Amino acid sequence: MADSDLDLVRGTLDLLILKTLTRGPLHGLAVTRWIEQTTQQELQIEEGALYPALHRMAEKGWLDAEWGYTDRNRKAKFYRLTAAGRKQLASQLSRWSRYTRVVGLVIAAPALDR
User: Fold this and answer.
1) Which of 77, 67, 61, 81 is nearest to 18 (CA)?
2) Quick check: 79 and 25 in contact, CB under 8 A?
3) Separation in Å, CA 67 to CA 17, 32, 77, 85, 103
4) What Rg value do the Cα atoms of the chain yield, rounded?
5) Chain-wide mean pLDDT for the chain?
6) d(CA 55, CA 30)
7) 79: β partners
8) DSSP E strands: which ranges in 63-102?
9) pLDDT tens, 8-59?
10) 3-state secondary structure (DSSP) of residue 71
11) Please, what is the angle between helix 47-59 and helix 28-38, to 10°?
């Protein structure tokens, strides 16, 4: 990520990619652009992180990939969620929800006056 105070928690990139691909098949650059637009440029995914993650998730069976052409008629690999990817997304969303809830409890706890 470039020029951002936010760092991705380990494993969060997978969640972001899986969620992005619920929109339908996308090539890597389109995944990156959607995440950046949705986060109002707060998260910027580096190619060096994105493509290894896409390949790893394809190897795990969470994504299928096939070659196609972009809107600009460039050849690109398009990724889409598999049934296993949807199951993994549901699992990660559940974990993320629990994580943010318990971290929120700690942050909201009142400080002791000493």
Assistant:
1) 81
2) yes
3) 18, 18, 4, 19, 41
4) 17
5) 91
6) 16
7) 26, 65
8) 63-69, 75-81
9) 665 799 999 999 999 999 999 999 999 999 999 998 898 899 999 999 999 9
10) coil
11) 120
Q: Which of 66, 72, 79 is nearest to 32 (CA)?
A: 79
Contact 76, 68 (CB under 8 A): yes
Cα dist from 112 to 4, 101, 102, 109, whole Å = 32, 22, 19, 9
Contact 94, 41 (CB under 8 A): no
- Token digits of residue 99: 């994580």
Label the pairing between strands 26-27 and 63-69.
unpaired
Alpha-carbon distance of 42 to 88, in angstroms, equals: 25
The amino acid at residue 2 is: A
pLDDT at 4 over 70: no
In the 8-state DSSP scheme, what is residue 21? G
**Sheet containing strand 26-27, strands side by side:** 26-27, 75-81, 63-69
Q: What are phi and psi of 10, to 5 degrees?
A: -50, 130
